[in-house]
């Protein structure tokens, strides 16, 4: 499906981003991974993905809080592959605190990674997409791009911003072969969420499974986690020809969270 095309997925060394990268690689896209982690482990991951899917896999360790680093990353990818055909803005961080006590440096960091980095990647990738008159931009927002939760002021603000930015870019590219859409996941069982479950179980002295159901029960009616594989398959659809007229959408995959 995507043979000869190149996909950059930010925050793709683990979790949702890795799930999306695998789904795109399975359909023949060359991959550019981005994210933090142990260098040797990332190289093993890069090599294994290349071997598994028979595609070219590169790694760019750009610090997404720094716009010049994002510009250099996009330029490097375009030099090697010609263009970024598929851009998936997935990288994200979280901090939880009441608004009046929210550390200013954490606000700046969350906005930089979760919102500003997506803007910079899009603005840098769009010119080559326009020259080719083909491109797919998929922004990973969140259920928190549509609704709010207490003590997550920076994350909710950033994800609402992602949803708005998605609509603007979709309108600006509406008469081109470029589409821009957002995916809004609910709870996904990433390593970060597993730590929250483990901490809840330890704090309350309950089994892991009970802590998991309690966490899900607060928001997600299905009482089941969304998987990175499911999000990856939705990303594949949004990048396909079938989704040519899906533009500016915010696709909820949240077990009924935002249906309430």
Brief synopsis:
The chain is an alpha/beta fold. It has eight helices and seven strands, in the order βαβαβαβαβαβαααβ. It folds into two domains: 6-188 and 226-259, Rossmann fold, CATH 3.40.50; 189-225.
How would you describe what is shown here?
- The protein is an alpha/beta fold.
- The chain folds into two domains: 6-188 and 226-259, NAD(P)-binding Rossmann-like Domain (Rossmann fold, 3-Layer(aba) Sandwich); 189-225.
- Helix content is 49%, strand content 13%.
- The protein has helices at 15-26, 39-53, 67-81, 104-132, 153-172, 191-204, 208-217, 228-239; strands spanning 6-9, 30-34, 57-60, 86-89, 135-140, 178-185, 250-253.
- The chain has a seven-stranded parallel β-sheet, sandwiched between helices.
- β1 (6-9), α1 and β2 (30-34) form a beta-alpha-beta unit.
- α3 (67-81) packs parallel to α4 and α4 packs parallel to α5.
- The longest helix has 29 residues, at 104-132.
- The chain is globular, with a radius of gyration of 18 Å.
- The chain starts with 5 loop residues before the first strand and ends in a 7-residue tail after the last strand.
Defining traits:
13% strand; 7-stranded parallel β-sheet; 2 domains; Rossmann fold; alpha/beta; 260 residues; 8 helices
Q: Given this structure, which CATH class of the largest domain is correct?
A: Alpha Beta
Strand fraction band? Answer: 5-15%
Pairing-aware structural class of the strands and helices? alpha/beta
Distance between the termini: 36 Å
CATH hierarchy: architecture of the largest domain: 3-Layer(aba) Sandwich
Q: Might you state the CATH topology name of the largest domain?
A: Rossmann fold
- Biggest sheet overview: 7 strands, parallel
| Count of alpha/pi helices | 8
Total strand segments: 7
- What do the pLDDT scores average to? 97
Give the tally of structural domains. 2
Percent in helix: 40-55%
CATH superfamily of the largest domain: NAD(P)-binding Rossmann-like Domain
Order of helices and strands: EHEHEHEHEHEHHHE
| Computed CA radius of gyration, to the nearest angstrom | 18 Å
Q: Note the overall shape.
A: globular
Strand order of the largest sheet: 3-2-1-4-5-6-7
Low-confidence stretches: none
């Amino acid at each position: 499906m995507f043979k000869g095309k190149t996909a950059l997925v930010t925050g793709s060394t683990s979790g949702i981003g890795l799930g999306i990268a695998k789904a795109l690689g399975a359909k023949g896209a060359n991959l550019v991974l981005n994210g933090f982690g142990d260098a040797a482990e990332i190289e093993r991951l890069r090599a294994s993905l290349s071997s598994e899917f028979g595609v070219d896999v590169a790694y760019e360790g750009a610090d997404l809080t720094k716009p010049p680093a994002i510009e250099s990353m996009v330029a490097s990818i375009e030099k090697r592959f010609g263009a970024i055909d598929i851009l998936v803005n997935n990288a994200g961080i979280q901090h939880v605190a009441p608004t009046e006590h929210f550390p200013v440096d954490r606000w700046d960091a969350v906005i930089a990674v979760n919102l500003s980095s997506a803007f910079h990647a899009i603005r840098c990738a769009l010119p080559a997409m326009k020259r080719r008159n083909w491109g797919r931009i998929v922004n990973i927002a969140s259920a928190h791009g549509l609704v709010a939760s207490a003590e997550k002021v920076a994350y909710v603000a950033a994800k609402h911003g992602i949803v708005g930015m998605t609509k603007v870019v979709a309108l600006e590219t509406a008469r081109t072969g470029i589409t821009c859409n957002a995916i809004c996941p609910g709870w996904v069982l990433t390593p970060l969420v597993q730590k929250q479950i483990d901490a809840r179980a330890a704090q309350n002295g309950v089994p892991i499974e009970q802590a998991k159901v309690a966490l899900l029960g607060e928001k997600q009616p299905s009482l089941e986690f969304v998987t990175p594989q499911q999000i990856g398959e939705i990303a594949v659809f949004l990048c396909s020809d079938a989704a040519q007229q899906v533009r500016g959408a915010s696709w909820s995959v949240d077990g009924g969270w935002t249906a309430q």
